[in-house]
């Protein structure tokens, strides 16, 4: 096939690509002529997205991989499949993630272990596999989606927040390890956003979910631009920047109290107008 102008020789792998941030990342990379490897559990939706972007932007190739990264075997299977196809991953976007809402002593352990596998173990394994190849080529970029809760404990989302704290620490450590190479790692730290996260985490009625939500388009754009500039970290959104900054000043106990308030269910009384309270 005839080569297209732009980044047609470059390929990006995006996990969790069928909706939310992942979908918006796919649009941004496709617009800049990157070939796509799209990974998600929902195969049909992923195929529709991938082939639509391929036609719209005349991409040389789009590879669709239906895979559940909560399975320990998935990262190696993805890597092996791409090796067999002869596809080189120039940019890795570790976006897939999930959470669960509730008191830790009441939530399901099996589900939390799956979240740890998805949010932490799969990120570590994919990064290990593809970073080794990037180091061998002395070229590559990785974007890891962390969170504003990476900076603070989050009661009622304890496991999720802890996994995102890991991602931030992990990313920043690797930044130092490859600082003398032509490789960059970027941590994207969004706040509460208008995605399926709260619904899937059974947290739709929390104050955070009912508050001001960032658009996935804006978050992805911030992450994309930071990645391309080789920035180490980007906190998306002004209010989230303030919240992340406060984590350097306030004690962890105060941060935990604030986050618990945000993650508690919003009572109906808070939705009433001032007149209705009279």
UniProtKB/TrEMBL annotation:
PANTHER family: DEHYDROGENASE/REDUCTASE SDR FAMILY MEMBER 7B (PTHR44196), SHORT-CHAIN DEHYDROGENASE-RELATED (PTHR44196:SF2). InterPro entries: NAD(P)-bd_dom_sf, Sc_DH/Rdtase_CS, SDR_fam. It comes from Pontibacter fetidus. Gene3D superfamilies: NAD(P)-binding Rossmann-like Domain. Keywords: Oxidoreductase. CDD domains: SDR_c. Pfam families: adh_short (PF00106). This is SDR family oxidoreductase. GO terms for cellular component: membrane. Belongs to the short-chain dehydrogenases/reductases (SDR) family. GO terms for molecular function: oxidoreductase activity.
């Amino acid at each position: 096939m005839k080569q297209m102008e732009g980044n047609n020789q470059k390929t990006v792998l995006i996990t969790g690509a069928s909706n939310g941030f992942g979908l918006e990342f796919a649009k941004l990379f496709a617009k800049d002529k990157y070939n796509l490897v799209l990974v998600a559990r929902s195969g049909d939706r992923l195929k529709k997205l991938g082939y639509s972007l391929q036609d719209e932007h005349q991409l040389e190739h789009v590879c669709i991989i239906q895979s559940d990264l909560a399975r320990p075997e998935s990262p190696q299977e993805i890597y092996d499949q791409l090796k067999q196809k002869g596809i080189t991953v120039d940019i890795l976007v570790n976006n897939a993630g999930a959470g669960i809402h509730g008191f830790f002593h009441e939530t399901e352990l099996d589900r939390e272990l799956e979240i740890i596998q998805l949010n932490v173990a799969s990120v570590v394994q994919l990064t290990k596999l593809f970073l080794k190849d990037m180091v061998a080529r002395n070229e590559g970029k990785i974007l890891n989606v962390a969170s504003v809760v990476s900076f603070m404990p989050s009661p009622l989302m304890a496991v999720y927040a802890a996994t995102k704290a890991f991602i931030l620490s992990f990313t920043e450590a690797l930044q130092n390890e490859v600082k003398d190479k032509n490789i960059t790692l970027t941590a994207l730290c969004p706040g509460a956003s208008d995605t399926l996260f709260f619904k899937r985490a059974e947290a739709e009625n929390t104050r955070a979910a009912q508050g001001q939500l960032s658009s996935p388009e804006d978050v992805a754009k911030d992450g994309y631009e930071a990645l391309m500039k080789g920035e180490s970290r980007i906190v998306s959104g002004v209010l989230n920047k303030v919240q992340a900054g406060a984590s350097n000043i306030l004690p962890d106990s105060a941060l935990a109290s604030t986050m618990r308030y945000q993650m508690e269910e919003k009572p109906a009384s808070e939705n009433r107008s001032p007149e209705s309270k009279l």
